């Protein structure tokens, strides 16, 4: 009976502890539900706040992007204006170079024409030179034949000796004058 009463006391203590624990559990569950409700309310507020903040952040980002794009557009317009100016300058330079090329081409054609004329004149001069050389050769040949006949006539007089060496034109002229003097006197 002592053991039973001891076990009953322990059972009563444990039942009391179990009731107390259940009571605490219910109180904790109630607090947990309250906290969950508060948390849901805060979460809803936070979601609505974050949604608004996200919208505001998006608006701020879009405005920044707009400013950045506007700056890029301004820079590109400036670059486009510079490029257009450069293109106009280059077109002017191209026009000037084309004019210079045209003038140069005309000069080349004129020089080619002048070269052809000079070449034609040079060919004509070469032809004339060749004809002159041929005529000179003929005249030289005739002159040599005439000279040799004069020398023969000058030294064919009786008692005269033939030349021992080649005579110069002055010597031939002198011999003709000396030997020709008696003949001239005779004829006169």
Summarize the structure.
The protein is an all-alpha fold and 188 residues long. The protein has helices at residues 2-155, 169-187.
Characterise the protein shown here:
This protein is mostly helical. It is 92% helix and 0% strand. The chain contains two helices and no strands. The longest helix is centred in the middle third of the chain and has 154 residues, at 2-155. Residues 4-131 form a coiled coil. Keywords: Coiled coil. This is CCD27 protein.
Contiguous runs where pLDDT drops below 50 for at least 5 residues: none
Rg is 69 Å
Shape: rod-shaped
The helix-strand sequence is: HH
The count of strands amounts to: 0
Strand portion: under 5%
Counting helices, strands and paired strands, the structural category is mainly alpha
Total helical segments: 2
Q: Termini distance?
A: 215 Å
Features:
188 residues, CCD27 protein, CC-FHA_domain, coiled coil
Record the SSE blueprint.
Layout: H1 2-155, H2 169-187
InterPro entries: CC-FHA_domain
Protein name: CCD27 protein
Keywords: Coiled coil
């Amino acid at each position: 009976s002592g053991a039973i009463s001891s076990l009953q006391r322990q059972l009563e203590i444990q039942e009391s502890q179990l009731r107390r624990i259940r009571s605490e559990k219910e109180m904790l569950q109630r607090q947990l539900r309250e906290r969950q409700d508060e948390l849901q309310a805060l979460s809803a507020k936070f979601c609505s706040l974050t949604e608004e903040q996200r919208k505001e952040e998006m608006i701020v980002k879009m405005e920044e992007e707009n400013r950045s794009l506007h700056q890029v557009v301004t820079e590109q317009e400036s670059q486009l204006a510079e490029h257009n100016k450069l293109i106009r300058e280059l077109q002017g330079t191209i026009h000037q170079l084309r004019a210079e090329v045209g003038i140069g081409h005309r000069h080349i054609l004129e020089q080619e024409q002048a070269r052809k004329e000079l070449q034609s004149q040079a060919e004509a001069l070469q032809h004339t030179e060749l004809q002159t050389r041929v005529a000179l050769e003929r005249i030289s040949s005739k002159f040599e034949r005439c000279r040799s006949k004069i020398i023969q006539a000058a030294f064919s007089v009786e008692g005269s000796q033939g030349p021992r060496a080649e005579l110069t034109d002055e010597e031939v002229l002198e011999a003709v004058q000396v030997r020709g003097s008696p003949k001239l006197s005779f004829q006169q």
